[in-house]
Amino acid sequence: xxxxxxxxxxxxxxxxxxxxxxxxxxxxxxxxxxxxxxxxxxxxxxxxxxxxxxxxxxxxxxxxxxxxxxxxxxxxxxxxxxxxxxxxxxxxxxxxxxxxxxxxxxxxxxxxxxxxxxxxxxxxxxxxxxxxxxxxxxxxxxxxxxxxxxxxxxxxxxxxxxxxxxxxxxxxxxxxxxxxxxxxxxxxxxxxxxxxxxxxxxxx
Length: 204
Ligand code: ATP
Ligand code: MG
Hints:
Blueprint: E1 2-3, H1 10-23, E2 28-32, H2 46-57, E3 63-65, H3 68-72, H4 78-89, E4 96-100, H5 101-105, H6 116-119, E5 121-125, H7 136-145, H8 152-155, E6 161-164, H9 173-181, H10 192-200
Parallel strand pairs: 1-2, 2-3, 4-5, 5-6
Helix pairs in contact: 2-10
Adenosine-5'-triphosphate is lined by residues 3-6, 11-12, 15, 99-100, 102-103, 125, 127, 169, 171-174.
C-alpha cells in the first residue's frame, strides 16, 4: 500500500488491518514515497514520514514498512516499485497493490499505468466521498481485469482487480495538516505515538 503518509492516519491503518483480517493475508507493507508524482513536495522530510509510519505500525506484527522508494529517491513511480518487488519475490508469488478509490480514479494519469497489472493485482478500497465513476479508459480496464471473487487474487501472481468496501473513515492527511496549522486537535485521527511525534517536532 503506497502513499505519501504525510502523516499516516487511522484511515490508512484501518484499511490495512481490515484487509489483513478479511482476506487472511500474511502481511501488508506500507510504502512511503520519496517524492509524490501528482502532488506538491510534502511539508516534512521523507525521513520524518518514514519515522511516523514506523511508529504507526508497531502495534500489529502483520504490518511493515517498505523503505525502497525513500532509498531510491527521485520521483516515486509505482511501476518501478512493483517491478523491483516482483524481481525479488519471483514470478509466481501473488502480489497485491492496495489503493483507495480516489487513487484508483487517477490511475490513467500514472506513469505506464496499464503495465501495473502485469506485476500485481489491484485491490481498490472504498473511500468516503469517492464514488466509482469510471471514465471509459478505466471501465475498459475493469472489464478486462475484474476478478469474479477476491479469492482469484490469491490464485495468480497478478492481473486481477477487486473492489472492497471497508468501514468508512473520512480521514485524510490534508485534513490533519489543516487542523494542525490551526492549532486544533488531531487526536483520535491517528495513533497516539504519531500524534506525539508531530507535536514534539512541531510538524505541520
Ligand atoms: P492527502 O490528503 O495528503 O492526499 P491521504 O489521506 O489521501 O493524504 P495518501 O498518503 O495520499 O493519504 O494515501 C495513501 C493511500 O491510502 C491512497 O491509496 C489512498 O487512497 C488511501 N487512503 C487514504 N486515506 C484513506 C481513507 N480514509 N480510507 C481509505 N483509503 C484511504
Ligand atoms: Mg491522497
